[in-house]
Amino acid sequence: AAKRSGKGTFRFFNDEMQKELNAAKALEKDIDDAITLGQFKPVFQPQMDALTGRIIGVEVLVRWHHPQRGILLPGDFLDVAANLGRMPEITRLVLDQAFQAASEWKSQGIDFGRIAVNFSGHDLMWNGFFRNIAQLAHEHGLACDHISVEVVESVAIRSDNEQSARALYELRKLGIRIEIDDFGTGFASLSHLNRNLFDRVKVDRQFIANIDTCERSRIIVDSIIRLASALKLEVVAEGMERQEEIDTLLQLGCTQFQGNAIAPPMPRTVAKDWLATHCGTGRLPDALVVETH
Ligand code: C2E
Ligand code: MG
Ligand code: MG
Ligand code: MG
């Protein structure tokens, strides 16, 4: 019996592994179609500054509208796409749609600040990619000073990698802002912040979730805010879902917010209505209304 169950267990793991492998293989096969058929679409998540009551930016996040599996999140497919070397194409498709939307909103008088796009290490290594962004922005009549680029710490600090450092430098010369995403989760030595290459740090959600009850998170975020402000960098907090998290961040002096408590990532038409409402009137989402005396 023992032998049989051992064998069964072995076969069970094999089946699971085989399933995962097949799923990844199926995705690989689907990516070609997805690119050709335009199944990659942007969603948009607003950023607000509670101090001024203004919308200061909108982050672009990719979604894959898969015909069988529904809407897939970046975590479901970005690694597969990157391993296949298809990220630059996907980035371009998403940017094209996002810049088009941004340009349309601007021309309708919706002042949402900057459109923020995410770049992977692969994107930065793509030869001439920064010229492509500028070109794409130009084609859509979108000024470079209405764009910001987010890179995760590990990419931002890769000073051993001349090509990506140069790409960031070139972007910044165009008026595009550079931000460090998921700040606090990577391996950045804090001295990298002092290179005068970055404009803002985005504090990762792992420190924001439950910041009201977790003292360690509060200490970490407090020190990030102090350091950033001493270096004249802006700080935005990511992923707040509850009022108590917002209140704690305000107490710590963080006033820039991007998270579901303000607004979730939204498809283009929904985002436009949300932005038109909140940009036009300067009306804060309820979560950000601070009592004044
Ligand atoms: P990120 O740039 O740090 O984006 C923020 C992530 O946090 C998004 O996940 C967003 O949906 C999620 N988020 C925002 N507010 C909340 C909240 O209140 N609660 C929770 N639980 N989550 C919240 P998403 O869309 O799954 O994207 C994951 C990551 O994938 C992004 O992290 C970014 O690194 C990457 N990514 C997304 N779109 C693109 C893209 O077009 N190109 C590249 N290269 N990477 C992308
Ligand atoms: Mg980001
Ligand atoms: Mg992030
Ligand atoms: Mg992230």
Automatic annotation (TrEMBL):
The chain holds residues 390 to 682 of 690 of the full protein. This is EAL domain-containing protein. Residues 24-279 form the EAL domain.
